[in-house]
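Tip: read the tokens left to right.
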């Protein structure tokens, strides 16, 4: 009995075992073959065995069929023979099927499906076992085939990275360096990411590029490239404590105000405290950045730092470090403070990225990682939350507007 259950119930059927699938494939083969023959009739302007009219132009002869070819479609894999035409008069275009292109091995729907499955998190090595039972034993599903299908990612990324930003006024930007497992051995790829909010409050991915450990030189290339694409100087940039970006931004976006991320700051401070103190310290830090005014926040910082002096001096020094840049968000509408205190817009996107790339364990190269992650981020970008009270953005003065006002006043 156990042997019966093992062989009869728990055997996964393939499309070859399903009479409905077999019938669908047979019908698809008949219809596709008939459509190919109809294409030849239209090209020659006569049906099979029909002589051409004396007054009509000679357009060639049927010359049998090419070698049988396998085509993978949504219901499996079918075999067809594409018709050939010979003796085509000089100056006339050669016959070429509009339905099945030379060397085509799968339908266009499948060509578009495979990259989408890749973006959704199906690893290259998982394509064949996952789809073999659906597409049939003869379907072209090798890992190398899937990899070639995804070369289109590169072209899409390069087109996007050169697109103009001149018509997209950016008010706020969030920047961060994201590290992912890619390349050989223990190498980790650093992706430099810039997300911006336009005057309508909509967030956009502006830059996604490889960098060298968030160095100043790497960030300079990113910021200069954004400027070359026509992006305006934003009113505020939000980032972590990495000195590379701030040094680069100071050279290119000289009038942009700077806000450090409170989440990164809190992590740095809490790392310098014993575990028993961290829960209470986290509440005190949240109370600081939730203050209603800059003066109130400063007062809370001074009180907390004073309470740590003598016991946790490193934590107190970290809290006081770069305090002005921690409170820049108070210069902007209160309704936007929750968006400007942290780099959460980037963190929320890359939580999705890590879920998708986790199935792949390790990306083959940092460059291929950029192309894949670009596709995932662009998909996640559509679900990004707009800024609350976007109408308040009209009260935010951009640096170029400030410069224009100064010139007019002079």
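Filled-in amino acids:
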């Amino acid at each position: 009995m156990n042997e019966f259950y093992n062989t009869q119930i728990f055997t996964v059927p393939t499309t070859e075992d399903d009479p409905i699938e077999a019938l669908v494939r047979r019908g698809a083969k008949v219809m596709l073959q008939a459509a190919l023959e109809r294409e030849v009739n239209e090209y020659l302007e006569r049906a099979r065995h029909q002589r051409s009219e004396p007054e009509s132009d000679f357009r060639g002869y049927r010359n049998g069929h090419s070698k049988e070819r396998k085509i993978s479609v949504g219901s499996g894999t079918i075999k067809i023979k594409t018709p050939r035409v010979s003796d085509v008069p000089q100056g006339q275009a050669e016959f070429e099927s509009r339905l099945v292109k030379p060397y085509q091995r799968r339908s266009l729907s499948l060509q578009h499906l495979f990259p989408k499955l890749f973006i959704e998190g199906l690893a290259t090595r998982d394509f064949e076992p996952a789809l073999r039972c659906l597409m049939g034993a003869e379907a072209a599903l090798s890992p190398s085939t899937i990899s070639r299908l995804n070369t289109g990612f590169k072209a899409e990324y390069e087109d996007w990275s050169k697109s103009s930003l001149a018509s997209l006024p950016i008010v706020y930007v969030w920047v961060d360096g994201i590290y992912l497992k890619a390349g050989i051995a223990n190498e980790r790829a650093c992706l430099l990411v810039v997300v911006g909010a336009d005057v309508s409050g909509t967030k956009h991915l502006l830059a996604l590029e490889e960098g060298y450990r968030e160095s100043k030189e790497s960030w300079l290339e990113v910021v200069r490239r954004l400027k070359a694409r026509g992006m305006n100087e934003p009113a505020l940039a939000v980032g972590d404590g990495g000195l590379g970006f701030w040094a680069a931004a100071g050279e290119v976006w000289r009038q942009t105000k700077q806000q450090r991320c409170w989440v990164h700051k809190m992590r740095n401070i809490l790392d310098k405290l014993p575990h028993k103190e961290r829960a209470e310290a986290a509440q005190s830090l949240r109370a600081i950045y939730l203050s209603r005014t800059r003066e109130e926040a400063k007062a809370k910082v001074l009180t907390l730092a004073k309470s740590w002096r003598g016991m946790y001096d490193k934590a107190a020094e970290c809290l006081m470090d770069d305090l002005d840049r921690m409170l820049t968000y108070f210069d902007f509408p209160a309704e936007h403070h929750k968006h400007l205190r942290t780099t959460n817009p980037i963190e929320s996107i890359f939580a999705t990225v890590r879920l998708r790339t986790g199935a792949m364990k390790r990306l083959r190269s940092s460059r291929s990682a950029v192309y894949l992650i670009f596709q995932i981020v662009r998909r996640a970008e559509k679900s990004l939350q707009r800024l609350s009270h976007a109408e308040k953005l009209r009260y935010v003065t951009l640096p170029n507007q400030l410069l224009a006002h100064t010139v007019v006043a002079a």
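The chain has three domains: 15-108, 110-157, 168-399. Strands lie at 61-65, 69-73, 76-80, 83-86, 170-181, 188-198, 203-211, 236-239, 257-260.
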